[in-house]
Amino acid sequence: MSPKIGAHRPGVTASLFIAFTFIGLFSAQAAAPWHCQLLEGTTILNDCPVCDRLSIPVNLRGSFDLVLETSNPVNATYSLTNIQWQTADWPAGGYRLEGYGQWIVGGEVAVRQEMTLQITLYSAEGVTNKIFTNMSASVTRQFPMLQIDLAQTNESLVEYFSLSLRAAPIRELWFSTSHGLTPGIWQDPTNHVSSSDILSMEGRIVKTGQSLFSRLGIMPMIPDLGLDALDIGPGAEVFYSIKDEVFSETLGPLHPGDLLSSQGRVAKRNKDLTAAFGFKDPAPDLGLDAIQLRSNEELWFSVTTNAISPTAGDIGPGDLLSTTGVVIKTNRDLLRHFQPDKPNFDYGLAALYVWPHGEIWFATENGFLDNLLGPIPKGTLLSDQGYIVYRNLELVRAFQPLEDLADFGLDAVFVVTDVTPPPPETRFSEILPATDSHPISLRWTGNAKVFQVEAAEYIPGPFLPVSPGLIDFEWADSTAAKVQCYYRVRSW
Questions:
Q1: Cα torsion for 182, 186, 192, 198, to the nearest 10°?
Q2: CA neighbours within 13 Å on the CB side: how many for 483?
């Protein structure tokens, strides 16, 4: 007799008894802290006030969790937990930081911030405890982005640490590169990453291009069509564009300007994207370089070709457009807080992610020289607020690419973040018990964009991730406990 999942009501655990293994299944979205990642510009500085030596800031990378503790009309108080930061040369040298802290942001007249960190600092000299507080109360990045400079309060004459923190609520950052790469973390012949693959900054392939294209009806299958625009919609449907013309046995000709779907359909032809701009038939195919789904069926996108719209005027490859027929931001608007050496040049718009509070992360199609920040190659992830989010080599650093390239390019970006509103409930639909040759297999349904399976030995938890972030509806868990295991699916 095949096992069946018990009746499920919202907020109630659906459970399944198989032989002597009790598998708990429930789908309610657990309250969780915001997981944050450190960004470009986060550094630690070890200074010596009485020493005649040059002190140079060293880059810090890592993560922490941000938890809202209290809030009122004036202030919000957050705790920083699970601080795990380190320099690139750790443990051979450099530093590792662990600890916790408190962040208060708000103010009756002007927005102000206060932060105190209790840090355990590991270095070649040993282990010490440090307390850091903010140097200035001014707020320079819009919440939920964080920028703050802190100094050690218990300073000494020979050792004085300071921190510059730059962070964003990132659970995972996914992207595609313009060039394929050969990861040094994997063995030949399976260690090739194509420009069609969706990659994670954690050093894994989220989705291969071949799996994205598998339902397009292309015969024979072309393994690398190039992945250009990218966004993920409800039900984990991936929307994207390709770089080359190709013929589909089921859909007909597919063009680089078309918006395609992982479900094997043409979501929008290029002429549909630009219809509101008043082009006369036959409408020109302007290409498609970046995309983001908005509410009420609106899409924001960029094109690859200059054009003159009868309704909006000049349109350039670096402009952010809307399917409603308006220019959301020109290329100059996106770069307004930068200082490019050619301010009137259109640098293109190759990748795009818009945060719920309106901040835009993007990459340009062409690199430029910034009069303040220096060279900014085309694969650099930027913010329209005027700062560098990540340099290209840091995006691919976890893959340890064997190619000696300064820049692999950046054609698409997507952020998995706890800031987005909780999606509709996700429900388990099937479970296949483990056998001697197969692990437990879980399947679910839901309208979220991203899923992650968590497990615990007992209902109170703690629940820990057993899968990475997924844009799929199934997962085989080879780590399941032998006696009992409870599952839940988080979703974004």
A1: -100
A2: 3
pLDDT band at residue 433 under the 50/70/90 scheme: confident
CA atoms within 13 A on the CB side of 442: 31
**Residue 425, phi then psi, degrees to nearest 5:** -60, 140
- N- to C-terminal Cα separation, the chain: 35
Q: Is the peptide bond before 144 cis (omega within 30 degrees of 0)?
A: yes
Nearest to 413 by CA among 385, 447, 384, 390: 390
Average pLDDT estimate for 58-76: 94
Does residue 362 have a pLDDT over 60?
Answer: yes
Which residue, of 364, 381, 416, is where some domain finishes?
A: 416
φ and ψ of 137, to 5 deg: -95, -5
Q: What is the pLDDT of residues 78-137, one digit of tens each?
A: 999 999 999 999 999 999 999 999 999 987 666 899 999 999 999 988 999 999 999 999
Does a structural domain hold residue 403?
yes
196: tokens are: 């069609």
Domain CATH number, residue 25: 2.60.40
β partners of residue 239: 231, 261
Confidence grade of residue 3 (pLDDT, cut at 50, 70, 90): very low
Which pLDDT does position 438 carry in this prediction? 82
Who contacts 125 (Cβ-Cβ below 8 Å, separation ≥6)? none
Judgement on whether residues 430 and 310 belong to the same structural domain of the protein: no
Last residue of a domain, one of 118, 146, 168: 168
Q: Give the domain range for residue 432.
A: 14-29+422-491
The DSSP secondary-structure symbol of 46 reads: E
Same-domain pairing of 184 and 327: yes
Joined together, the tokens standing for residue 59 give 């880059």
How many domains is the chain built from?
3
* Measured distance CA(239)–CA(233) in Å, rounded: 7
Indicate if 410 and 428 belong to the same structural domain: no
Residue 325 corresponds to which amino acid?
G
CA distances from 87 to 94, 396, 487 (A): 6, 17, 35
Express as a percent the part of the chain with pLDDT over 70: 91
Residues 133 and 216 reside in one and the same domain: no
Name the E strands within 48-177: 58-59, 61-71, 75-86, 96-106, 112-123, 126-134, 146-152, 160-168, 172-176
Burial 418-444 (b: 16+ CB within 10 A, else e): bbeeebebbbbbebbbbeeeeebebeb
